[in-house]
Amino acid sequence: MQDHYQNSSFEPSRLDISSSAPHDFVSKRSFLSSHGTIIFRPKQATFSSYKTKGESDLMDPYCKFKVGHRSGLSAIAKSAQNTPAWIDDIPLKVKREQYAKVTIKRRDKIFKGHRMAEARVYLDSVVSEGRVTTVVPLMKKDIVVGELLLEMEYTPNIKA
Predict the structure, then answer these.
(1) Is 21 inside any structural domain?
(2) Of 2-6, 38-42, 70-74, 130-134, which range is least confident?
(3) Which CATH number characterizes residue 98's domain?
(4) Which of 37, 38, 39, 95 is the most buried if burial means most Cβ atoms within 10 Å?
(5) Is the pTM of this model over 0.85?
């Protein structure tokens, strides 16, 4: 898997791991009190090797964030090329979940709901630090096809 990152402009961190294997570094203690809300703010995606035969340069991508059974969508980045940008706040409640799944989908007449890329974002850093900005590798069929600049902000539930 390390081979996929050699041509990339970022270094993968434990926040950016996209495999589904369990990881020992996830602190169970940080998730015991992690009931709260995380605001996901996708800033910009960069697709390096996405275009396939017959597809146009213009696409209308949007982001779908899923934490547990809760999900939220961003607005559609109209007529975006390989660097779509968003200005959305997507709040999702968290209850001890360890990661969020991010899927970037394409919304146009031909490829309605077509999955362009996806990533898994571990939530331990944002729960412990409160606010995190990170670059997440976007994968399609175990190949890195781009990056997503993502800002996350955690607000714990306060018991009265």
Answers:
(1) no
(2) 2-6
(3) 2.60.40.150
(4) 38
(5) no
